[in-house]
Amino acid sequence: MKTISSRDNPLYKELKHLATSSQARRKSGRTLLDGVHLCQAYRQHLGEPQLCIVSESSAQHHEVAPMVARCLAAGTQTICMPDALYHALSQVEHGVGLMFIVATPSPEFPAQLSHCSVVLDNLQDPGNLGSILRSAAAAGIKNVFCSIGTAFAWSPKVMRAGMGAHFLLNIFENVNLHSLLASATIPVLATSSHTSQTIYQVDLNQPVVWLFGHEGQGVADDLMAMATHTVTIPQRPEIESLNVAASAAICFFEQVRQSQ
Amino acid sequence: MKTISSRDNPLYKELKHLATSSQARRKSGRTLLDGVHLCQAYRQHLGEPQLCIVSESSAQHHEVAPMVARCLAAGTQTICMPDALYHALSQVEHGVGLMFIVATPSPEFPAQLSHCSVVLDNLQDPGNLGSILRSAAAAGIKNVFCSIGTAFAWSPKVMRAGMGAHFLLNIFENVNLHSLLASATIPVLATSSHTSQTIYQVDLNQPVVWLFGHEGQGVADDLMAMATHTVTIPQRPEIESLNVAASAAICFFEQVRQSQ
């Protein structure tokens, strides 16, 4: 295991750049998994990281030590650094000091939209995106397509909220949703309060595409027009709408219920 | 309409304290509603505020002007202040400058737990709490009981996430959940991954109590033991659990579905 002890170390500078710049993460196709849970989930589903980083005070931690040992056994580059240097990379305040650097998965873009999918138009909030990814993975949905303008799925906040869901999904970003929806061979459903058909009345025991949009403005009109079905979640009229991640969870699990 | 133009004005100092200290809000039993949407929702459901505050540049805004006019017509104390002073009170970055100061509602604590309710044990995240309140109100659930340690429901973040749901609910805070659950005359349901009965198999066409807990640790063991039913949301085993606000939405709307 190597040790980095200076902020001027070139690798440290590179890591700092990766940790603090979402542009650097996008450009390099790499991201940072912060904390034992995310690192364990990554290894379980996708294998070894490119690089393992551990803070001095966490190296002997009962959950960290076996993770590090396995990295060393696998020949993965593993670096120990003083806590002060580590915490300048980490966004987790009271977390255990273990981090993986991994390649952002780049799944093959499908020629047709023919499997259960979630399509997100301009979704803003990292917490909402993470929650939607987590619900989708839990419901057995495999593909998530994000428009330009949707929050960056591989940001630390979204990954924390996703709790490892990222590693079970095919996530496509900066997608032209028009072309994508035009390629759909299965029903495309969007929720709307201006319709009478409820999610409980529509046949969800089949692959469908779920379309969700911006927290305030919803799905853009031109994309909404490409939905084959608009459905409503019946609710008290005094409430304008549900939180988008709550809506998505209700829709995905109504599909689970109907498929049982 | 009065104008405040100095940071040394005693009322301004009081407002600043209210805006920046959650303890001040708890102690005074008052809170701050920031933005047109929350103010409109409050007025619609609960009436006039104690005080209306408008920023100079927003006084003529097409949504704000009629709100202010109605406050003046109702004899509500209404104050205009320069944008710089207003923005020192507001947590909304690009919002329209309208704020209500209102008394935090203090509903009567029920002698028995006999109506549809949500019980929250040590829920931490303001966004999750706001989303749960919004889903509960949308599903027609009236009562929400929060333990000591649960996020403060009347904080600006929770109110923004709640989108006005607060004004449709009876929210009880700092509740002793043991005594409360001991008074239940209806089923108390908690979600768990260690049970085989699904939410789709249990009879929800009746009033029930939903018990949810801390984002990481779930419901405390001693409270969990007071649940009359533990139910599971069927999901892929690779995912540890759903986000608590997503779980709550799925449960509340399974109840809506069964009640239709």
Automatic annotation (TrEMBL), chains A, B:
<dbReference type="InterPro" id="IPR029028">
    <property type="entry name" value="Alpha/beta_knot_MTases"/>
</dbReference>
<keyword id="KW-0808">Transferase</keyword>
<dbReference type="GO" id="GO:0006396">
    <property type="term" value="P:RNA processing"/>
</dbReference>
<dbReference type="InterPro" id="IPR051259">
    <property type="entry name" value="rRNA_Methyltransferase"/>
</dbReference>
<dbReference type="GO" id="GO:0003723">
    <property type="term" value="F:RNA binding"/>
</dbReference>
<keyword id="KW-0489">Methyltransferase</keyword>
<dbReference type="GO" id="GO:0008173">
    <property type="term" value="F:RNA methyltransferase activity"/>
</dbReference>
<dbReference type="Pfam" id="PF00588">
    <property type="entry name" value="SpoU_methylase"/>
</dbReference>
<dbReference type="GO" id="GO:0032259">
    <property type="term" value="P:methylation"/>
</dbReference>
<protein>
    <submittedName>
        <fullName>RNA methyltransferase</fullName>
    </submittedName>
</protein>
<dbReference type="InterPro" id="IPR029064">
    <property type="entry name" value="Ribosomal_eL30-like_sf"/>
</dbReference>
<dbReference type="InterPro" id="IPR001537">
    <property type="entry name" value="SpoU_MeTrfase"/>
</dbReference>
<feature type="domain" description="tRNA/rRNA methyltransferase SpoU type">
    <location>
        <begin position="117"/>
        <end position="252"/>
    </location>
</feature>
<dbReference type="InterPro" id="IPR029026">
    <property type="entry name" value="tRNA_m1G_MTases_N"/>
</dbReference>
